[in-house]
Write a structure and sequence with these properties.
Elements lengths: L11 H4 L9 H8 L4 H8 L5 H6 L3 H16 L7 H10 L1 H11 L36
Length: 139
């Protein structure tokens, strides 16, 4: 299973920066601050499987993903442990499904009003032809 917070391994040559390229002390302090979940997801987006990457392009799906990750973080789930993430999801499964069901609008069935027009009935446009030879020809 894919872990969105798994660290990427860098090649050995990229690990040791040259003396001229060493970061300034202010930059290292900024890197030491805790990275938000949104930043981590954006950073890890390239390593995601294609199906998930395409779904995360939708802002609503991405926000739901971030909300769940924040709740996991609040509950103390270690994102490096797939077992802990699965356990949390299983414990909160009913709650997550209930939230998801309220967010999806219900699809309404289309009900035609008035009489149904048959193929051999006169066309309702008033041409005098049968429906199958007039407006129903292209259907």
């Amino acid at each position: 299973m894919w872990n969105p917070f798994k660290r990427k391994t860098a090649p050995a040559a990229a690990e040791k920066p040259a003396a001229a390229e060493q970061p300034k002390p202010e930059q290292t302090e900024v890197k030491k601050t805790k990275e938000s979940i949104e930043e981590r997801i954006d950073r890890e987006l390239d390593s995601l499987p294609g199906i998930i990457k395409n779904k995360l392009k939708d802002p609503q799906v991405k926000q739901r993903f971030i909300d769940i990750a924040k709740r996991m973080e609040k509950d103390g789930v270690d994102f490096k442990s797939l077992r802990q993430m699965k356990k949390w999801m299983k414990e909160h499964e009913a709650e997550l499904k209930a939230e998801q069901a309220t967010g999806i609008p219900k699809v309404e069935t289309v009900v035609h009003e008035g009489p149904r027009i048959g193929r051999n009935d006169p066309c309702p446009c008033g041409s005098g032809k049968k429906y199958k030879k007039c407006c129903g020809k292209d259907l």
